Amino acid sequence: MAMRYGSSPGQVGYGAPGARHRSVLAVVALAGCGALLAAGCSPAGAPGAGRGSSPPGTAAAGSGPAGPSGSASASPEPSGPPAKGAVTVTGEVAKGLESPWGVAELPGGDLLVASRDKGTISRVAVGSGTVTRIGEVPGVAPGGEGGLLGLALSPSFASDRLVYVYFTTESDNRIARLRYDDHRSPGQQLGAPDTVFRGIPKGLVHNGGRIAFGPDKMLYAGTGETGDKGLAQDKKSLGGKILRMTPDGDPVHGNPEADSVVYSYGHRNVQGLAWDKDKRLWAAEFGQNTWDELNLIEPGANYGWPEAEGKAGKPGFRDPVAVWKTDEASPSGIAWAEGSVWMAGLKGNRLWRIPLAGAEPVAEPEAFLEGQYGRLRTVVALGGDRLLLVTSETDGRGSPEAGDDRILTLTVR
User: What average pLDDT does this structure show over 67-81?
Assistant: First the structure.
């Protein structure tokens, strides 16, 4: 029996995934209710504040009072898209991938994909589906939930060609950047890694791993508490946190504490990061035996683990915006599109839609693609109503079929 992704030994959640019914082209539409916020994903390179600015989603000095989400409350939320959500699988970008985890879209539309267990990065030609290995990240030590995890392009990628990676070594989790030169021979296109941040605790489980550049062009990373629950509440530890740093790995002026990259704490295992159109930061994380969570992230806030799981209502802790039973989600990547957060479920074998008006849910989360493609790892917003969805059947906890793992294209509303 495979252990539920995100569970520690001794936790519930064991069980084999159910059978899947697949097609390269599938249409799924489920009814929802309530008005949703019209939105698009803010690009990582969007104009933002520099090193001395306020973080996204917070009110800058002199900008007026902050609302519940921390954003300036100068104008009411606009009305949103139709109440009924829908997902259409429009195609298959690639197949036959091994343990895909981080994904980034290159200028021109091709993709870079990290293999957790191989420690390699490949380029996927979107038009043909051809997968070409561009290189290997030295020092990756795969094992359990560790390996080559998150992947992000520099906000200045067009000029600096830097690819950022989050990976597990023999001693820690760290973030490095490598220069990508596609004029060199395949397999030799990555330069030597330049480590920008090290010392994130590692474990057999709960290594976090998602990295992303925010609208402020700062680098954010979700970490896990490695199964050591006490790390999440220890603000001196990097485990069980969301980190915010410069592209060089330094603390950002304006972080909650001077000379610290810790942005929020009290997390169990953060693997999803995304910003909405108003630059609010959202994060998905694994619960233990009861509740998985979608959280609205505020700088300096305490999200409760291990003292609180789910909507505990305990003083001093920030409650999640939405929760799921652990066998329905086990969330990994998230993306923002068409007024909703879209969340990939691993054990849940489904894609969740969380419709939001500003910072508040306007309807119950909707499930799509349930059981059709197995475990789902990563969601990438391509702009407008288009998403990429990455499966995760070859990570040792799935039931891989011919062609796994896959990258699918979706249109959503």
Answer: 46
Residue 144: strand, helix, or coil: coil
pLDDT digits (tens, 9 = 90+) for 94-110: 999 999 999 999 999 99
Closest to 58 measured CA to CA, from 67, 71, 77? 71
pLDDT in tens, 279-309: 999 999 999 999 999 999 999 999 999 999 9
**197 membership: H or E segment, kind and range:** strand 194-200
For residue 175, report the phi and psi dihedrals to the nearest 5 degrees: -120, 130
Task: Summarize pLDDT for 344-385 with one digit per residue, the tens.
Answer: 999 999 999 999 999 999 999 999 999 999 999 999 999 999
CB contact at 8 A, 385 and 357: no
Helix (H) or strand (E) holding 198: strand 194-200
Q: Rounded to two decimals, what is the model's pTM?
A: 0.85
What gap in Å lies between CA 173 and CA 154, rounded to an integer?
19
Q: Phi and psi of 326, rounded to 5°?
A: -65, -30
Extract the tokens encoding 158. 């067009």
Q: How far is CA 19 from CA 226, 256, 393, in A?
A: 31, 46, 12
pLDDT of 125 reads 98
In the sheet where 270-275 sits, what is the strand order?
Answer: 270-275, 281-285, 291-297, 322-325
Q: How far is CA 105 from CA 122, 255, 391, in A?
A: 12, 28, 17
Cα–Cα dist 404/368, whole Å: 19
Phi/psi for 26 (5° steps) reads -140, 150
Statement: residue 84 has pLDDT above 90: no
Query: Binning pLDDT at 50, 70 and 90, where does residue 54 land?
Result: low
**DSSP conformation letters of 317-364:** SPPPSEEEEGGG--EEEEEEETTEEEEEESTT-SEEEEEEETTEE-S-
Contact 134, 191 (CB under 8 A): no
Residue 372 Cα to chain centre, angstroms? 21
